[in-house]
Design a protein that fits this description.
about 575 residues, mainly beta, about 60% strand, Porin, two-stranded antiparallel ribbon, globular
Length: about 575
């Protein structure tokens, strides 16, 4: 495979060079970046921190990209010696985990890539190849991508290849083969008289299929053959008029029995639509989505982060504050949910009585997701063996998965002082998304945050956060009133910066309301660092809480840890 890749790179480079012979040769440019994460571990029975056999973890990578004219090539060298706890433990060794060669001629409408690449069709519900390094997720395609623009109004993408699954002294791909085509059509460019119209209309059309050698399962004394080819298609349209926009997409996938859905033979569907706009000082977003059995992988037998072909984003707001983001982070229930999200923003004008000298920003976000509106087949029916259930409508089911309501106010009071306050009400079903093992059911929580930033001296500032989370009190089986789950939490964050080079920080997460007094622990972590342009070094020490870390609706479990952490990043 490596010899074939090298041969293709040489061929593509020769092709690019032959085209460039009649043009003025441009000098080649090398760019890249480096990232290193090293962590030490020490045992801490109080928080459940354990020490791996290697006693330390080390994740590192470096991207090197060479560009000359329309041609570019690059690679990513990676090291997991051994991988930091919380990342896939099977990632091991050191080697090349990503490599590519690309030729792009915009004037002629040709763009071809061989090797690894990331790509997305439409909203990603049918196909999204991407990387979330903080999660250890990387489903990079390995094959060929061709992008053609035959006319200004039409853009075609064709992808063909396998997906990254593992890393063992180099890239390891999964077994399945992915084939896909996507078309992006601009009606304004297609019809010349609409070129300058304020109304912009665009459509997306996608088709993706997976091939994996077949197998069979036995259910109720019947042998059911698993399909080798599974395909899906998607169509979507967006409209934009000034600051207003709207869109809708529909996705359909044929039956795809897998480990995610319990190997049922039921088609998958998804429907999503949105509306956003501005009215004077108001801006808003309304988003409605329903997905049913839309898990799609290039290997039907794998779970979690392994070789997902598509991505179903969570409907909730991606919170950044510690208690809101880490205790009960919501990830989409991939087998199906019906959700809604509404956002409202308002800016109080500068100089007004309520807005103050510098103005004030207000925001209100409401998001909720329920189970699907379904009916299970009768135990005697034939359909029960292959489908198990049918969906009654695109509406909400009976079971609440999550409800997140948050309000924020952001105001600059003086030239040197600004503050932000947030209140959040959260109802979270730990049976739908099991982020905790201490409580089964719906957790009712309230979160309050106050963030301040003060410029203390020229090019120096202090930023602080004061956060508190409280859970509902209920009566347990013994008739005693107790707090839900782990009870109440508080977090204090302080960061001091001497621009442009130095910073220090301290965070203390305290579980002061835990029903078990022995677990009322301070998770104290301190850090300091130096920044010089694109180079950043940070050293930290302290305790990290066991929990779930999420990005974009995808989550990974993070074990408790106690020890040093060193990070270094640089780009050139």
């Amino acid at each position: 495979m490596r010899k074939l890749f090298l041969f293709l790179c040489l061929g593509l480079s020769a092709f690019a060079s032959s085209i460039a012979q009649n043009e003025e040769r441009e000098p080649g440019v090398v760019t890249g970046n480096v990232s290193i994460l090293w962590q030490s571990y020490q045992e801490d029975s109080l928080i459940g921190a354990v020490v791996p056999p290697s006693k330390t973890g080390f994740n590192a990578y470096s991207n090197l990209i060479y560009t000359q004219g329309n041609f570019s090539a690059g690679l990513r060298y990676e090291s997991f010696l051994n991988s930091v706890l919380g990342f896939p433990g099977r990632f091991s060794g050191t080697g090349v985990g990503y490599r590519f060669a690309r030729y792009e001629d915009r004037e002629k409408g040709v763009d071809v890539t061989i090797g690894n690449f990331y790509e997305q069709f439409g909203n990603g519900m049918l196909f999204r190849s991407y990387e979330a390094r903080d999660l250890g997720l990387d489903n990079a395609m390995d094959g060929i991508r061709l992008i053609l623009t035959p006319i200004d109004a039409l853009r075609l993408k064709v992808v063909y290849g396998k997906q990254r699954l593992d890393f063992e002294d180099g890239l390891v791909n999964g077994d399945g083969i992915i084939r896909g085509i996507n078309g992006e059509l601009s009606y304004n460019e297609l019809v010349s008289k609409f070129n300058d119209s304020k109304l912009r209309v665009n459509s997306d059309f996608s088709f993706v299929s997976r091939f994996q050698e077949g197998g069979y399962i036995i259910r109720d004394d019947r042998i059911l053959e698993l399909p080798e080819n599974v395909a899906g298609w998607e169509v979507g349209t967006t409209l934009q008029y000034g600051t207003w926009s709207a869109g809708a997409s529909y996705t359909h996938k044929i039956n795809d029995p897998s480990a995610d859905n319990g190997y049922i033979f039921k088609d998958g569907e998804a429907l999503s639509y949105f509306l956003s706009g501005n009215v004077k000082r108001f801006s808003f977003l309304l988003h409605r989505s329903t997905s049913d059995n839309m898990s799609f992988r290039s290997d039907r037998d794998l779970l979690l982060f392994d070789v997902p072909i598509n991505n179903i984003p969570a409907i909730t707001k991606p919170h950044t504050y510690n208690l809101a983001a880490t205790l009960y982070p919501y990830a989409t229930v991939i087998n199906g949910e019906s959700s809604f999200r509404g956002e409202l923003y308002y800016s109080l004008p500068r100089g007004s009585k309520l807005g103050g000298k510098y103005g004030t920003k207000l925001s209100l976000v409401f998001a909720t997701a329920y189970s699907l509106d379904t009916t299970h087949y009768d135990a005697q029916s034939t359909e029960r063996i292959v489908d198990l259930y049918y969906r009654n409508s695109w509406g909400f089911g009976e079971t609440l998965n999550v409800q997140d309501i948050s309000f924020e106010i952001d105001r600059k009071f003086t030239k040197n002082f600004k503050a932000k306050a947030m209140y959040m009400n959260l109802r979270f079903n730990t049976l739908a998304v099991p982020v905790t093992t201490d409580y089964k059911g719906i957790v009712d929580a309230n979160i309050a945050v106050i963030e301040t930033q003060i410029k203390t001296k020229k090019r120096q500032s202090l930023r602080t956060e004061f956060q508190i989370l409280t859970t509902k009190t209920e009566v347990n089986d013994e008739g005693v009133e107790v707090k839900q789950d782990k009870g109440d939490w508080a977090t204090v964050v302080a960061e001091y910066t001497w621009s442009p080079h130095w910073f220090v920080g301290l965070i203390d997460q305290y579980n002061f309301g835990n029903p078990d007094e022995s677990k009322r622990i301070h998770y104290l972590y301190g850090s300091a660092g130096y920044i010089n342009g694109p180079h950043r070094l940070s050293i930290g020490y302290g305790k990290r809480r066991e929990g779930i870390f999420c990005v974009g609706g995808v989550c990974r479990a993070v074990p408790a840890s106690n020890g040093f952490e060193v990070t270094f990043t640089s780009s050139f």
